[in-house]
Amino acid sequence: MQNLKNMYRRYALAFATGSMAVCIGFVMQTSEAAVPAVAQAPAQGDLRDRVSLPQDFATPRLGQAVSLPAMPAEQGQGVSLPTQQVLVAVADDLPVGLLPNEESIPALGCGPELHAKTNAAALVSLQLIAPCHPGERVLIEHEELKFHAQVSADGSADLLVPGLAEVAVFAASFENGDGAVASARIDSLPLYDRVVMQWRGDSGPELHAREFGASYGEKGHVWREAPRSVSALAGGAGGFLMVLGEADDPTAAQAEVYTFPTGIAKNRGEIQISIEAEVTAANCDQDMQLSSLALREGQVKDRHELQMQMPDCTAVGEFLVLKNLVQNLTIAKN
Q1: Level-2 CATH architecture, domain 110-187
Q2: Nearest CA to 237 among 214, 216, 255?
Q3: Could you write out the DSSP letters of every residue in 226-239?
Q4: Residue ranges per structural domain of the chain
Q5: Terminus-to-terminus CA distance in the chain, angstroms?
Q6: What is the pLDDT of residues 26-37, one digit of tens each?
Q7: In Å, what is the CA distance from 260 to each residue of 237, 256, 280?
Q8: What is the pTM of this model?
Q9: CATH number attached to the domain at 189-334
Q10: How many Å apart are CA 138 and CA 270, to the nearest integer?
Q11: Same fold, 110-187 and 189-334
Q12: Within a 10 A sphere around the Cβ of 140, how many other Cβ atoms?
């Protein structure tokens, strides 16, 4: 019995020893197979020689077929991407519903500017700068005086306006509401007397001044056809007439202003002032509206307004004398 037990122990020990030998052999064989695989791996510095990097994609031209570059096969997998062609097509037809062009935005700083400067004979020089309103009509207002002026093609206007107040405020306004204001001080205003007549349209009234007994057509007769210039005031010898407004525009405000240097007058006597209107084909049988005022020693006086119907067209060529609208000027020598 004891011999049988010893035999079983020898068989178990031999089996265990054989199993261990088999395991050791398997491990050694696996390790030896791995060494060549590691040895065959290329060095880090040789990767550029073994692997081709893809070129940068070129930008395709519209309407042409282009080829994508083949991608390199991945190591150990043997898989490569097939080369494909991409066709970019461009339609010849314009898209439907194109947006309209946007309107241009006005440039900043385009608003009108008005500058006023006192001049000789109680006149004021106005300079209007309006680059956004080239060639347009502008309304000039000062006290009760109103008239339209024309802006030049470059958006400017230079005007000479008779003052009606020592602290004179002038306004320029356009039809769209744009405007500007300027002021000037006229210390010499009390030295001058003025008569203002103003109207709208082509009714054609005329302001006449006959100085110191002069008859129509004589040297002392001052009116639209013989207005004189500001130089006539020199030495207090006589007055002059200014015509303001756009006569070619049938809707424009217009005015005529007669100025006499009362404070430095050389002569004494009376200046006869009258307003006359010729009946024409343009104003016959039409309503006429006009107003007048006088400036005495720097103060506005004698305001008058008139609304009347002109005679019918059978009276074309005749003249109407509009009475009681203005008073004569009495000049007393100082």
Answers
A1: Sandwich (2.60)
A2: 214
A3: B---GGGGGGG---
A4: 110-187, 189-334
A5: 176
A6: 445 544 444 444
A7: 9, 14, 30
A8: 0.67
A9: 2.60.60
A10: 37
A11: no
A12: 23
